């Protein structure tokens, strides 16, 4: 598409779709007009892909996920269509700057953290490798809350990405299913019938997802809850206006917010409703599509692969059995086997509190038929293995992990270590019974977003050095390995990093009034705030460092800027305390005239995908410091390594594999491994012992206790101090001393810029294995048994002028 054609298309959309003219148009109008113009370019390859999948009558992959953290879509589409230059030229011919237009797009924050972002990377990779696939989830009206800080404390406000027209989706009023809840179950002529007491309509909204070079496009289908009757005219006419609108308001509650607070009974009920709502709608849609192409439901596992992203859609097991058995009359045992042939389950956490359980009372009242099917599935499983005593139910609760495991033909962990721990811990008994079921699929990230778009300077350098093929064959990055020894390349690589850091520094100055020196090491920890991720270990080290610099302000310190980003779940009090501590420490340290040339701390609020895209390319040091055995994989760690940040990390999740690939000498390892963690935890008074043994740690904790960061409010952070001195389940105190040691090694290493750049280049060169294209191909062959349909001569809508 030429610049002129694109410009004409933008102007036409501005006029005919938005009803405005260039003189009056706002940046948002221009952005939406550009989005429509780009979307038009996607529709043909999208149709072609759908038709190719229909013609092949082959297997389709369905990725069911409560979260899709897709972020902004316009840049992704422009990049994948190869229209960056045209778009930039077209916009500037209209007097606009493309970057300004791109950053006007609100982040679609339909997710929380790694799990949702993984789903987004997978969608893009599925399209890039040409695998016919659908993502299924919920079209939340309000995505993850917006975070701000008031006096250093996290304050949440609703996110409103749908306040403006969403240019990427197509509403499908014709694709709708009625989803029931509650009611009665009865037998009728040998068939079980469920008559729900209430129901809502799930209506589809489709977003096309275009792969690299526009060769293939899949669909992200998100369900929105609508009432079965929109409006009660009788009540309205009686003057009961609120009552008349009630059905609509109640139905809409289901797709209103991502992660409603589920500490109350009502919250739990809503959450289970959400899970069933999107799972049932998706399964109905999948069966409808299957039956439009085939007629024998026993063939389902040959044509349908359904991936359950965590336990959130685990109700898919009993729901698919219900559809096959109750609705389509397949014998129960056969229905169970058929459902299992289609389903597979990805586990993302070993934390017991994060493995879902639903009380049988709640499940029985909301999904009575499913509860009775779970009892049947459980009984059948127990009967097949009478000596094992394994059950999906315990203390009046249904264990969704066990249910998902038993209803899946494959169960996977997301890094080698995590998969091993799954076998040894949470699923040890089930693993003994089904030793072929668990397998590993180490996570990956899409290079299109996380290198090509996020880091154009590095991308340009890579393409100049080895050609463009690395973009969809990321292991080609190995080809730059010899260039680590080339002084010219090292200089260019360093210059790209430096320019990224300068850009971040000006952003921080403009947006936050914070001034940081781009010469300093940018040390970054961005992820959900959680005790196991140990942001408090990082801030403790900052305190100790600040104290030491203060003792010796003329010392030869390596200047650092520590940057934090991340949100705490609204009900997670301790995580919110950690945020408050980081902000309070930052305030004191940043205003210390003696130390601030060596140490600064910044914590931009409202961390999201777009901020990650800004921070990662500008980072020198990547903090991956979770308690070993707790971080299932991590995916941020991969993005940093690809963008040439060195990792300081524990032997946890995918850090283990990153270190193996980039080389131990290019990775700063510290801390206990997973076995040592378990042994340490068993030692009585482990935290107190660690503090006694390390005066630095004791002094840092004393400063917090004595109110150094809460002037006039001694005791503000007592919960943190007493946790770290006593129970310290996540072993912050016990790992502190070694973390400090490793950080000082980092300081020394950073001063030798040549050696540092060599290490950074080797991180980039050796991290290509972490492409989500590799992960998706591996799921296709090892779990889904699915084929890609990409013909080499696919539609290629790239720049022609
Ligand atoms: C979870 C796990 C991570 C893992 C992702 C994706 O995400 O270790 O990398 O899922 O598998 F904890 P978070 O939301 O916790 O980052």
From TrEMBL:
Enumerate the cofactors the protein uses: pyridoxal 5'-phosphate
Which SUPFAM superfamilies would you find in this protein's record?
Answer: UDP-Glycosyltransferase/glycogen phosphorylase
For whether the record's keyword set contains Cytoplasm, the answer is yes
Give the reaction(s) catalysed. [(1->4)-alpha-D-glucosyl](n) + phosphate = [(1->4)-alpha-D-glucosyl](n-1) + alpha-D-glucose 1-phosphate
Q: Name one GO molecular function term.
A: pyridoxal phosphate binding
Protein localization: Cytoplasm
Choose any GO biological process term that the UniProt entry carries and state it.
glycogen catabolic process
Its EC number(s): 2.4.1.1
> What InterPro entries does this protein's entry cite?
Glycg_phsphrylas (IPR011833), Glyco_trans_35 (IPR000811), Pyridoxal_P_attach_site (IPR035090)
Q: What EC class is this?
A: transferase
First-listed, main subcellular location of the protein, grouped into a coarse class = cytoplasm
Residue(s) carrying N6-(pyridoxal phosphate)lysine:
639
Q: Which family does it belong to?
A: Belongs to the glycogen phosphorylase family.
Its biological purpose is as follows: Phosphorylase is an important allosteric enzyme in carbohydrate metabolism. Enzymes from different sources differ in their regulatory mechanisms and in their natural substrates. However, all known phosphorylases share catalytic and structural properties. Allosteric enzyme that catalyzes the rate-limiting step in glycogen catabolism, the phosphorolytic cleavage of glycogen to produce glucose-1-phosphate, and plays a central role in maintaining cellular and organismal glucose homeostasis.
Q: What is this protein called?
A: Alpha-1,4 glucan phosphorylase
Q: Which organism is it from?
A: Profundibacterium mesophilum KAUST100406-0324
Gene name for this UniProt entry: glgP
């Amino acid at each position: 598409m030429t610049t002129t054609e694109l410009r004409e298309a933008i102007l036409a959309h501005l006029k005919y779709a938005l009803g405005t003219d260039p003189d009056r148009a706002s940046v948002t109008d221009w952005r939406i007009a550009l989005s429509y113009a780009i979307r038009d370019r996607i529709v043909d390859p999208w149709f072609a892909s759908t038709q190719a999948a229909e013609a092949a009558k082959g297997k389709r992959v369905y990725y069911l996920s409560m979260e899709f953290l897709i972020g902004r879509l316009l840049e992704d589409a422009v990049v994948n269509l190869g229209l960056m230059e045209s778009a930039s030229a077209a916009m500037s011919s209209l007097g606009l700057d493309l970057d300004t237009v791109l950053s006007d797009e609100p982040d679609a924050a339909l997710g929380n953290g790694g799990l949702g972002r993984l789903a987004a990377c997978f969608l893009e990779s599925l399209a890039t490798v040409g695998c016919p696939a659908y993502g299924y989830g919920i079209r939340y009206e309000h995505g993850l809350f917006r975070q701000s800080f008031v006096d250093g404390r996290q304050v949440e406000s609703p996110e409103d990405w749908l306040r403006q027209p969403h240019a990427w989706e197509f509403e499908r009023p014709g694709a709708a299913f009625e989803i029931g809840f509650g009611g009665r179950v009865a037998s009728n002529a040998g068939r079980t019938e469920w008559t729900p007491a209430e129901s809502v309509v799930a209506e589809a909204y489709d977003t096309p997802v275009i792969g690299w070079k526009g060769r293939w496009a899949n669909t992200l289908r998100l369900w929105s809850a609508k009432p079965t009757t929109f409006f009660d005219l009788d009540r309205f006419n009686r003057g009961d206006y609120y009552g008349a609108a009630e059905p609509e308001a109640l139905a809409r509650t289901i797709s209103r917010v991502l992660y409603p607070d589920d500490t109350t009974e009502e919250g739990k009920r809503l959450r289970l409703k959400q899970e069933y709502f999107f799972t049932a709608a998706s399964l109905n849609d999948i069966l409808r599509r299957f039956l439009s192409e085939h007629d024998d439901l026993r063939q389902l596992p040959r044509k349908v692969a359904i991936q359950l992203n965590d336990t959130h859609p685990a109700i898919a097991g009993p729901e698919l059995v219900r559809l096959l058995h109750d609705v389509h009359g397949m014998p129960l045992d056969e229905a169970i086997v058929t459902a299992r042939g289609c389903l597979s389950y990805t586990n993302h956490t070993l934390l017991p509190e994060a493995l879902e359980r639903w009380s049988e009372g709640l499940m029985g009242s909301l999904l009575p038929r499913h509860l009775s099917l779970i009892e049947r599935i459980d009984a059948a499983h127990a009967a097949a293995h009478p000596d094992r005593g394994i059950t999906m139910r315990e203390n009046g609760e249904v264990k969704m992990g066990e249910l998902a495991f038993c209803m899946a033909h494959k169960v996977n962990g997301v890094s080698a270590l995590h998969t091993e721990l799954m076998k040894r811990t949470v699923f040890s008994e089930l693993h003994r019974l089904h030793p072929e079921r668990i397998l590993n699929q180490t996570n990956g990230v899409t290079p299109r977003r996380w290198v090509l778009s996020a880091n154009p300077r590095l991308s340009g350098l890579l393409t100049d050095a080895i050609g463009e093929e690395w973009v969809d064959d990321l292991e080609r990055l190995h080809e730059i390995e010899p260039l680590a020894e080339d002084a010219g390349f090292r200089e260019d690589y360093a210059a790209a990093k430096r320019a990224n850091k300068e850009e971040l520094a000006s952003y921080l100055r403009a947006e936050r009034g914070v001034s940081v020196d781009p010469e300093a090491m940018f040390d970054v920890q961005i992820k959900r705030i959680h005790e196991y991720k140990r942001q408090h270990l990082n801030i403790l080290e900052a305190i100790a460092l600040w104290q030491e610099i203060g003792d010796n302000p003329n010392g030869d310190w390596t200047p650092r800027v520590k940057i934090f980003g991340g949100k705490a779940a609204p009900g997670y009090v301790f995580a919110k305390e950690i945020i408050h501590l980081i902000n309070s420490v930052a305030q004191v340290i940043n205003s210390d005239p003696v130390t601030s040339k060596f140490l600064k701390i910044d914590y931009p609020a409202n961390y999201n995908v777009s901020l990650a895209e800004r921070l990662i390319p500008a980072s020198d040091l990547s903090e991956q410091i979770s308690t070993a055995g707790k971080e299932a994989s991590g995916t941020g760690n991969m993005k940093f390594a690809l963008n040439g940040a060195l990792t300081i990390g524990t032997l946890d999740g995918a850090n283990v594999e990153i270190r193996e690939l980039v080389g131990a000498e290019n990775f700063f390892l510290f801390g206990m491994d997973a076995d040592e963690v378990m042994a340490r935890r068993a030692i009585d008074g482990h935290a107190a012992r660690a503090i006694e043994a390390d005066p630095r740690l004791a002094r840092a904790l004393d400063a917090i206790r004595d109110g150094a960061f809460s002037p006039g409010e001694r005791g503000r952070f007592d919960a943190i101090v007493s946790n770290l001195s006593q129970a310290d389940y996540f072993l912050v105190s016990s790992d502190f001393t070694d973390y400090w040691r490793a950080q000082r090694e980092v300081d020394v290493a950073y001063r030798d810029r040549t050696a540092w750049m060599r290490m950074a280049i080797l991180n980039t060169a050796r991290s290509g294995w972490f492409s989500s294209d590799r992960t998706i191909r591996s799921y296709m062959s090892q779990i889904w048994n699915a084929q890609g349909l990409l013909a080499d001569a696919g539609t290629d809508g790239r720049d022609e002028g």
